[in-house]
Amino acid sequence: MKEGRERKREEKERKKERKKERKKERKSKIGSATWVTRFRPIRAGLLPILHPSVDAARAARSRKGCPGLGSAGAEAPPSTLPSLPSPLHPPLPIPGCLAHLHAPLSLSLSLPLLAKMATEGLQEKESLAVLKTEAESLKGKLEEERAKLHDVELHQVAERVEALGPFVMKTRRTLKGHGNKVLCMDWCKDKRRAVSSSQDGKVIVWDAFTTNKEHAVTMPCTWVMACAYAPSGCAIACGGLDNKCSVYPLTFEKNENMAAKKKSVAMHTNYLSACSFTNSDMQILTASGDGTCALWDVESGQLLQSFHGHGADVLCLDLAPSETGNTFVSGGCDKKAMIWDMRTGQCIQSFETHESDINGVRYYPSGDAFASGSDDATCRLYDLRADREVAIYSKESIIFGASSVDFSLSGRLLFAGYNDYTINVWDVLKGSRVAILFGHENRVSTLRVSPDGTAFCSGSWDHTLRVWA
Predict the structure, then answer these.
(1) What is the arithmetic mean of pLDDT over 252-268?
(2) pLDDT tens digits for 39-74?
(3) Rounded CA separation 93/99 (Å)
(4) Which residues lie in Basic residues bias regions (predicted)?
(5) What predicted TM-score, i.e. pTM, was given to this entire model?
């Protein structure tokens, strides 16, 4: 019995000693303050969240009269300025008497950094503003110099040129097979076959003489907005909302599986709006809604050159007609038509006279000029040698945008498809309208003259293509 009582007493004494040790540990913790590096946003600014022991430390100092708090031992009012931990002095436990010195120290280290960052930001903004004003002034001077050279209009020079005789063209073939809007078409070099793409996701190769379908490809996406025939006639390229340009080789084998032979060449970050083979089957140019154009190697799928400069979606492009030509023209939603050097990737000329999106561009047969069609209901002709616009083709009665343009083989006529279901034929030299062609029952979306110049084909939102001659 006595041994059991002694054991109980010893246990009670041990418990008392443990309690005393815990109290001592708590008191020692109160003598130090720990800063927490998190910040809580409030309206007056960002105040540091302190460890709970800081309040107890302040109270202890105020009772003892710690030096540095004033003669009365009163605590200084807390600052509303943010106290950021310095990267050179990380937050550490601070003795109670020196805890109040941590805030001024961190402020003295962080405020110069904040001031430096603010001044650097202001300097960058000022430099950008200066560069912008300089660019605008240079652009104004350039326009003034161009205006000095703009002493005569094209139609004034062509006054002595004989007017064109009666113009007669009508629909010779109607190609039916698409289940939705026709968006793009292109001719084969053999002057007989054509390829078209549609919103229904189908790409069809036609015999324009017999109106027969020779090939049909179903794309994995709808809105196939671009298609092109290879110069050899042995392949086609197409793309749209899948952001890719796919190349399909053409053969005349029975039950051929074209989808299995597909080769994905180009990959953009937005929809593919236009594509065109260069002078060989080995390279292809693409334009995209991501605001860029690109040159790709067909065999490897490697990006050879990218062209950055448009400020919005690029909607159309056309390659210079000469066999050794290394330039192409592009137009887009930024109202600009730009000439690019494929070797360097640089823009060498830029024209900004349209008042709305440019939907179609086409080089003049000689390669010295190009035409553009826009949503501002006008078509315009630009001379690359004069570096300016030389003609505008429009009428007050035309209020709908032009979607596609192309020249006749001689360059005397300009064909333009419009959103009012018509095709207008313009005299390039005199600037007058020669004829209006009716036939489509919805807007004309694409138009191309055949390689031999004897006919042209138009595609429409009425699901059909028409061959005119």
Answers:
(1) 78
(2) 344 333 444 444 444 444 444 444 444 444 344 444
(3) 9
(4) 15-29
(5) 0.71
* Cα–Cα distance for residue pair 191/456, rounded to 1 Å: 10
d(CA 138, CA 144): 10
Interval 220-247 mean pLDDT: 95
In the 3-class helix/strand/coil scheme, how is 339-383 assigned residue by residue? Answer: EEECCCCCEEEEECCCCCCEEEEEECCCCCEEEEEECCCCEEEEE
Sign for the pseudo-dihedral over CA of 459, 462, 464, 469: negative
| DSSP bridge pairs for 35 | 50
Contact 314, 275 (CB under 8 A): no
Distance CA 404, CA 184 (A): 10
Sign of CA dihedral 278, 283, 287, 291: negative
Q: Which two tokens stand for residue 364?
A: 């003049």
Segments of 31-137 assigned E as strands: 32-33, 35-42, 45-50, 94-95
The whole-angstrom separation of Cα 89 and Cα 95 is 16
Which domains does the chain show, CATH number per domain? 178-468 (2.130.10.10)
Q: What is the spatial distance between Cα 381 and Cα 402, in angstroms, rounded to a whole number?
A: 14
Position 191, amino acid: K
CB 457 within 8 A of CB 467: yes
One-letter amino acid at 57 equals A
Q: How far is CA 71 from CA 57, 60, 65, 76, 339, in A?
A: 18, 16, 8, 12, 79
The radius of gyration of the chain's CA atoms, rounded to the nearest angstrom, is 38
340-374, pLDDT tens digit by residue? 999 999 999 999 999 999 999 999 999 999 999 99
What is the pLDDT averaged over residues 396-403?
96
